[in-house]
Amino acid sequence: MEILKKKKSVLFKIPNLILAIAYGFFIIWLVQIDSNYNSGDINALLKWFREFSNLEFFMNKYDMGFNDYSFRYITIKFHHLFNLSFINLLKIYAFLISSIFFYIYIQKLNQKNNVFYLSILFLMVFFTPRIWDLWASGIRSGIAFLMLFVALVYLKGVSKYIVFIMSALLHLSMVPIIVMHFLFNFSVNNKKYINSYFVLIFYGLFIALFAKVFMNISSVNQSIQYQLLVLALALIFIFINKEAIKDEYWFLSIGTMLIVIFGFMFDVSFIRYVGNSIILYLFFLINKGKLRSIQLTCIFYIPFFSFTLHYSIINLI
To answer: Which structural domain range is residue 194 located in?
Structure first.
């Protein structure tokens, strides 16, 4: 039986890799569209790189935080080392992030039985605008999230924590998720005394208030309708699988989504966390989701996918 499983895994690796590469090229196309239409974070980055393309000038004049500094320094270094334009470098970053995530998930998917509903949900998730924004628009946070995700899934011990630190140094938005990893372990080890739901609610409220008072984070600019759509998605994630509180990926997904919800309340935008939350929730479903919960999530995810895709297409047109 084990031999058959291994053969099946090897058999799917090549087509899975081809599909992952194809998805990566789709993300490259989106990066180019963002560049053409002056949308997303791409054009702000490109404008900045045009001003600071000289490495010596950059080192003398640029005085922002280390996390932002390191990403821009490495990109300028690559620009001179490989003689690549900045737009092509950003496309390469986006291609690698998206292809690796796609490959990890489709490989996991092929190891499961009865994957019909999971396959539909997988495709909807990876073609949700909020997800492709993780790879095509928020490139620095996308790289940081990939590092964090790989550390969570594949690494243990010291190496895991080293990659955690590198992820946080690259983008500070990973810090709340890393803290939730430790909160999960703490709440599981003290489950007789601590309610995990209380931990998530209190933590989400704390992050939103802390950001409001001490950090310079942009205000919420999404419509009330979109905020209600995100709230509905959060409630679906919570109540369809509320018994999954003991699973770390469920815990991290719900925790990031609650930060977004509390951010709406206090006019602090954590909207990019919606994508992180969906990705983590899908990983939970692939790993441990019951068929009934997968079916319900698939059905209830369709409105969120349809509305957000519809408005993204309208904006592109």
So the answer is: 2-316
Structural domain count, the chain: 1
Supply 38's token pair: 């002056």
Residue 42 tokens read as 């791409």
How far is 16 from 104, CA to CA, in rounded Å? 9
Please enumerate in sequence order all residues whose Cβ is within 8 A of that of 52, keeping only pairs 6 or more positions apart, or say none: 58, 61, 62, 72, 76
CA distance readout (Å), 218 to 22, 198, 214: 34, 27, 12
Q: Report which DSSP code applies to 216.
A: -
**How does pLDDT run across 248-290, given as a tens digit for each residue?**
999 999 999 999 999 999 999 999 999 999 999 999 999 987 8
What's the pTM? Answer: 0.91
Supply φ then ψ for residue 296, to 5 degrees: -65, -45
8 A C-beta contact, residue 197 and residue 254: no
The residue count for the chain: 317
Give the tens place of pLDDT for each residue, 2-15: 555 555 556 678 89
For residues 21 and 201, give the distance between their C-alpha atoms in angstroms, rounded to a whole number: 39
The answer to whether the CB of 22 falls within 8 A of the CB of 96 is no
Round to whole Å and give the CA distance between 96 and 11.
Answer: 23
Judged on CB neighbours under 10 Å (0-12, 13-18, 19+), 22 is: exposed
Which residue is associated with the tokens 């992952």? Answer: 20
Under 8 Å CB-to-CB from 203, ≥6 apart: which residues?
A: 176, 179, 180, 183, 255, 258, 259
Contacts of 317 (CB under 8 A, 6+ apart): none
pLDDT at position 113 is 74
Inter-axis angle of helices 129-136 and 139-154, nearest 10:
100
